[in-house]
Amino acid sequence: MAVTRLNYVSLYVTDLDLAKKHYEEVVGLRVTDVTKNQVYFQSSDSQNHHCVIINASDRAGIEHIGFKVSDPSDIKEIKLVSENYGLETSDVGAGEILGIGEGVKIKLPSGHYLNFFYHADVIGYANGMFNPKSVADEVMGVNPLSHLDHLLVTCEDPAKTIKFLQEVLDFNVTETASAPDGSIIAGFTTVGNTMHNIAFAGGPNGGLHHIAFYVYDRADVIRRTDLLKSRNVPTMEFGLTRHGIAGVTTVYFFDPSGNRNEFQCGAYETPGVPNRVELVTWDVDSLMGKGGFYYEAAVEPKFFQTVS
Ligand SMILES: [Fe+2]
Fold first, then answer.
1. Ligand 1 mean position to 212 CA, how many Å?
2. Pick from 66, 97, 117: which residue ends a domain?
3. What's the total number of domains in the chain?
4. Residues with pLDDT less than 50, the chain
5. How much distance in Å is there from the Cα of 146 to the middle of ligand 1?
6. Is the pTM of this model over 0.85?
7. Which of 39, 52, 189, 204 has the fewest C-beta atoms under 10 angstroms from its C-beta?
8. Is residue 225 in some structural domain?
9. pLDDT of residue 306
10. 293 lies in which domain range?
11. Strand boundaries in 156-301, DSSP class E
12. Residue 130 burial by Cβ neighbours in a 10 Å radius (0-12, 13-18, 19+)
């Protein structure tokens, strides 16, 4: 079995029109499909149908997360091993999620739902697949961004879900942070070449801390921070900063429903092969200091308290 990539995230939003405007004009994604209650978006560097779905709802938060597998037989295997582990599963029919083939949805111990599928419709790059333009068109004043990079989600017992992903689904665990008693309070997992695809931190089960988009260079994070400020998009008070963990240049902001977004650049690369990554560990003081925000050497409590 091989889970090959984080493919998309499906979010709840409280105002579909406002959220559509946000992900199109502020984030810089292109709209690839629209239904009565959903909008699908893709980044310009991806050929698949979407990387973000927004769903009209009475709440913000995370609906489910989509991961691609390397072979159609992986779907049945994931269903079997997940059920043997005691997790709930349900079959997802082809086309039930636009642009996505059949899959299996599992409920993690953290309360989050993951959909594992093999087929994703290919729509091609935004710049075309024949003689593509070298310079991308602007998307409403924002440079096109690279891809959906990762999510940080919350749960009461991060260790329990990280153990399942590592031992049963062969995710790599790149970094963890531990409390003085040795319990894991945060952990970073990946199936690709980036240091995290999905990270878990303490908080309410099923919670969403943020979704992160990778941009091409650190200067673009600065330019995007300028644009967020000029557009009065809510950001963290100290705006642009850097994480000690992963070393990325980062800015956080919120969509109109209260889902936290991140633009970031500079994460170190990982081999993308199971069990080939040596673990980096942090203690809680470092996590809440330079590991969290390198310049400020402190993390405001509301950074972890505000989740959707
Ligand atoms: Fe992040």
1. 5
2. 117
3. 2
4. none
5. 15
6. yes
7. 204
8. yes
9. 82
10. 147-305
11. 172-178, 184-190, 198-202, 207-214, 241-242, 249-254, 260-265, 280-283
12. exposed
